[in-house]
Design brief:
The complex is a heterodimer. By secondary structure, chain A is an all-alpha fold. Chain A is 62% helix and 0% strand. Chain A starts with a helix and ends in a 5-residue tail after the last helix. The chains are: A mainly alpha, B mainly alpha. Chain B: It comes from Mustela putorius furo (European domestic ferret).
């Protein structure tokens, strides 16, 4: 064993040879027992699929998922280069945001029943199919992000625009006029820029470095369409 | 993820003779299949795969044991047991065959790698192609090169959709956003795909040297002129300006496409037919987008809302032409804002 260690040690110190190049020179005689331990580094956040998560109360499950969603909201609101959204992706947050946005963009259907239908479905379809298209585009451009991770990031980055929708709805309670419009325009523009910055912070690293602009441009169009729907919304 | 998948794949292929059932699994190895079954990300290790292997091995052993037990039962029970066992085996095999076919078909159609070579572009290339689409070439004696990529055209179609939506900014047009969005997407994609196919068919008749992909790319980049014209004229509502842009910018992009097609076609009649059709369709589409598209929208609104909406004022605003440029833009914005306010107040 000592000879084996020596001979494997030497190639490394003498000259830059490829790794494990000297292993072919090692001969281990028959009567030396080869033994040892292999320790597998366990990832710290693997959820153990044993019965403990099945037996816990519903409240625990919901609170745990809600906390995860809330943590990701914080990451979106203060975008730094981090891997949280990518590592533990989930689609609950995008679903909550999309449903909230679609509900708020729904017009009240008191006057004409025909207005009640399409907005919810339209927002839903635009958000999900837009996200799918952007994901396919970034995969085709050579990005190494998975399908659901990209959906997760794009969905979570709708959060600023949902906040803008809330603000616009509040502002619309005041009397209409050009100042109203300017305030809403300003809010929507700021939140639109925030969404793009947030999604760029998460998605840009997964693209080849010279093609980042090509992958970000459809994200820009996607959030532009959503911002446009928010800005041109009037309740009646 | 890629690094952990590769050794696992290597281990599997090394042991392929023993675990023959996994060849279909490594068939598409390295391709970007949208793999809905295996959530291929957060696991990050091959332990899930190894677990799956063991699971399948166990299942196969269980099946083999069950089959062996049934065989013994069959021998014991005679003819009746034999028939039951046979039918069960046949059903089993049909299920396995069906499952294999379904997964193979799924991996074939969900394999987006077919489109990957068409998206292999750099930003500098896209920029230069966008600029070149406005410059008509003079040399028509030998076939001009057309870049066969789909990223630029696809993004231009989406940009056109966004610009069409942006153009509906007076309040009347936002009530039925749903229909308008669908109409915008349908119009733009319908034009790009439909006219490309039609011109490709004509090119086939006229013996022109162009493939479908090249036609899609050519027409897609020709929409760049449309995007510019519409973006400018939706913000500045002057008919004279629109006609000028229509002729200049639309004309330039049409000339470019026509020149490329002429360089790839032989014979005066064929050239005339092909290029005349393309030029007419391209210029008329721009005209349609500016004028008739909004009439279609107003028509939808009128039929839905009834006649009590004042008709949209699409006449050129009375803007004194002698104003200096800065005040001109301010006046334009004021006029637009006033129109928006009037229509807002009418509700």
């Amino acid at each position: 064993m000592a000879e084996a260690a020596e001979s494997s040690g030497d190639p490394g110190t003498t000259s830059p040879r490829p790794l494990f190049a000297g292993l072919s020179d090692i001969s281990i005689s028959q009567d030396i027992p080869v033994e040892g331990e292999i320790t597998i580094p366990m990832r710290s956040h693997i959820r153990e699929f044993d019965s403990s998560t099945l037996n816990e109360s519903v409240q625990n499950t919901i609170m745990r998922d809600l906390k995860a969603v809330g943590k990701k909201f914080m990451h979106v609101l203060y975008p730094r280069k981090s891997n949280t959204l990518l590592r533990d992706w989930d689609l609950w947050g995008p679903l909550i945001l999309c449903v909230t946005l679609a509900l708020m963009l729904q017009r009240s259907s008191i006057d004409s029943e025909k207005d009640g239908g399409p907005q919810f479905a339209e927002v839903f379809v635009i958000v999900w199919f837009g996200a799918v298209t952007i994901t396919l585009n970034s995969k085709l451009l050579g990005g190494n992000i998975s399908f659901f991770q990209s959906l997760c990031v794009l969905g979570y980055c709708i959060l600023p625009l949902t906040v803008a929708m809330l603000v616009c709805r509040l502002v619309l309670l005041a009397e209409p006029g050009p100042i109203n419009f300017v305030v809403r325009f300003f809010v929507v523009i700021v939140m639109f820029a925030w969404s793009i910055v947030a999604s760029t912070a998460f998605l840009a690293d997964s693209q080849p470095p010279n093609r980042k602009a090509l992958a970000i441009y459809p994200v820009f169009l996607f959030y532009f369409v959503i911002s446009w729907m928010i800005l041109t919304f009037t309740p009646q | 993820m890629a690094t952990t998948a590769a050794p696992a794949g290597g281990a599997r292929s090394g042991a392929a003779p023993e675990w023959g059932g996994f060849e279909e699994n490594i068939q598409g190895g390295g391709s970007a299949v949208i793999d809905m079954e295996n959530m291929d990300d957060t696991s990050g290790s091959s332990f899930e795969d190894m677990g799956e292997l063991h699971q399948r091995l166990r299942e196969e052993e269980v099946d083999a044991d069950a089959a062996a037990a049934e065989e013994e039962d069959g021998e014991f029970l005679g003819m009746k047991g034999f028939k039951g066992q046979l039918s069960r085996q046949v059903a089993d095999q049909m299920w396995q065959a069906g499952k294999r076919q379904a997964s193979r078909a799924f991996s074939l159609y969900a394999n987006i790698d077919i489109l990957r070579p068409y998206f292999d572009v750099e930003p500098a290339q896209v920029r230069s192609r966008l600029l070149e689409s406005m410059i008509p070439i003079k040399m028509v004696n030998f076939p001009q090169k057309i870049a066969g990529e789909l990223y630029g055209p696809l993004m231009l179609v989406f940009t056109l959709v966004a610009i069409l939506l942006h153009g509906m900014k007076t309040s009347d047009t936002i009530i039925r956003e749903g229909t308008l969005m669908g109409t915008a997407i349908g119009t733009c994609f319908g034009y790009w795909l439909g006219v490309s196919s039609f011109i490709y068919f004509l090119a086939y008749l006229c013996n022109a040297q162009i493939t479908m992909l090249q036609m899609l790319a050519l027409l897609g980049y020709g929409l760049f002129g449309h995007c510019i014209v519409l973006f400018v004229t939706y913000n500045i509502h002057l008919h004279a300006l629109f006609y000028l842009f229509w002729l200049l910018v639309g004309g330039l992009s049409t000339l470019r496409m026509v020149a490329v097609l002429v360089s790839r076609t032989v014979g005066p009649t064929q050239r005339l037919l092909l290029c005349g059709t393309l030029a007419a369709l391209h210029m008329l589409f721009l005209l349609y987008l500016h004028f008739a598209y909004h009439k279609v929208v107003e028509g939808i609104l009128d039929t839905l809302e009834g006649p009590n909406i004042p008709p949209m004022q699409r006449v050129p605003r009375d803007v004194p032409a002698a104003l200096p440029a800065a005040r001109l833009s301010a006046t334009m914005l004021n006029a637009t804002a006033k129109a928006v306010a009037v229509t807002l107040q009418s509700h």
